[in-house]
Structures are given as C-alpha cells and as structure tokens.
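Take a specimen:
=====
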Amino acid sequence: MSAETDAQGRLYIPKEVREKYGQRYHIVLYEDRIELIPVADDPLTAVREAAGDLHDASVEEIREDIETAAKDDAAEAGSDR
C-alpha cells in the first residue's frame, strides 16, 4: 500500500486500516524510510498477548528458544545464497 501527503503534510490512513490497527501510531524514523507502529489501547494486554507462552517459561527456556530460532534463521539465510 502506498499513500501521499496532502499540501499540509497530512497522511490519510484508509478506514479499513484504522479499524484494524486503531487511530494512534508511533512514527519510527529510519535513514531511508519511516514506519507507523500502532499504539495499543491497552499496552499491558498487548504485551501479555505478545509474550504468549513465555509467561510461564523460565529464563533458560527462553534463551534456548531464542538460540534455536537464531540458528534456524541463519541456516535459512545461508541456503538463500
């Protein structure tokens, strides 16, 4: 999806997007682009949902999962070359 700003620099976000992601966004600036990150109505609930199964996991289990995911990602990246 692409969009243009109006003469006053305002960006129109389509109704479907606003209904799905909400009315408020963080603007994240990068060297070559910007990103709009939706702001959750209830940040604590959003964090709990994002954490999912990690809520009851030990630190060691989380570290093992991260290491496994990193190895899988590295293996995939290596096969793309």
